[in-house]
Write a structure and sequence with these properties.
Strand content: under 5%
Distance between the termini: 18 Å
Largest sheet: none
Helix content: over 70%
Number of helices: 10
Shape: globular
Structural class: mainly alpha
Radius of gyration: 20 Å
Number of strands: 0
């Protein structure tokens, strides 16, 4: 039986590449939290108390600002990666090279999207129009990641050159919806109305079921486009890391299925004891989400699809 390719890429990593991976992972996390949080508010704000709305808005504001700062810092890190020293962080010519590459437009859109969220979410009243604009900012922020990376480099017919990036964008927006809802759902478990907690959990589970379908469809399609052959899953470092990522995803989906089929029905039956289990399950999902984002950061920073 064939085994997975060994992971040896880390021998070649220097301090700047490691910094780039860590920064990108946290940029993913902050951006998905802010964007997904806005999506969550757009759907469920009417079911939340004033205190819950305010708490979630504060969380979105903080993660949005963190995402902006990290996104700008990533430009400096990429400049330092090219010079190999601390001076590269503020090296004018190198920074210009980074900005003039695809990283420039991607960073601009990312910052613009998050800034839109931060500015609008601070408003005391978010009407439907405001929520729509803020949600659009979230879409722009997370979809900006599709402008850079392997999706834009694969060999594909010119007529459908846009397809991989479209799939990545759809994939990222769906991921943001899911990951960004975890902390708001966790915050909701401290509410006083069990029927409301049950109703939100039930409705989110319905949306999450559709999200799983989109994630799997986009993920499998992208994998086929990027790797070209199933053999690459066990013969390349990229494929091995992808398998590791899918392991985390499988655990996440398992917890989500547990929430939907076991815990939510107990909540709807008025079982307060299910709250503590649900809270622990959501915390576990957050940990798994961080592992997924960390693996993705490695895939998009240190390892290419043809790495063997």
């Amino acid at each position: 039986m064939l085994g997975l390719a060994s992971l040896s890429f880390y021998y070649d990593l220097d301090v700047w590449q490691i910094s780039a991976i860590v920064t990108k992972a946290f940029t993913y996390g902050a951006s998905f939290a802010a964007s997904g949080g806005v999506f969550f508010l757009a759907i469920f704000s009417g079911r939340l108390t004033e205190q819950e709305n305010a708490s979630i808005k504060n969380f979105i504001s903080v993660t949005g600002v963190v995402g902006i700062v990290l996104s700008l810092f990533r430009v400096c890190i990429m400049s330092a990666m090219m010079t190999g020293d601390v001076g590269g962080l503020l090296d004018g010519p190198m920074l210009r090279m980074v900005v003039e590459s695809t990283e420039g437009p991607a960073t601009f859109l990312h910052v613009a999207g998050l800034l839109t969220i931060v500015l609008l979410v601070r408003r005391s009243q978010m009407r439907a129009g405001t929520q729509l604009i803020a949600s659009f900012g979230g879409v722009v922020a997370v979809a900006s990641f599709a402008l850079v990376g392997h999706a834009g480099e694969v060999a594909i017919a010119p007529q459908i050159k846009w397809l991989p990036q479209l799939l990545v964008s759809l994939h990222l927006v769906t991921v943001a919806f899911w990951i960004g809802a975890l902390w708001p759902l966790h915050r909701l478990t401290y509410g006083d109305s069990l029927p409301n907690i049950a109703a939100v959990s039930h409705r989110f589970g319905q949306y999450a079921a559709a999200a799983v379908g989109i994630l799997l469809l986009c993920g499998i399609w992208l994998l086929w486009i990027i790797l070209g052959t199933p053999k690459a899953l066990w013969s390349s470092e990229y494929g091995t890391l992808f398998v590791i990522k899918m392991f985390w995803v499988a655990l996440l989906l398992g917890l989500a299925a547990l929430n939907k089929t076991r815990l939510t029905p107990r909540l709807m039956e008025g079982d307060w004891s299910a709250i503590r289990t649900l809270r622990f399950s959501i915390r576990s999902e957050i940990v798994l989400a961080l592992l997924i984002l960390a693996t993705t950061a490695i895939l998009t920073t240190a390892v290419g699809p043809d790495a063997s």
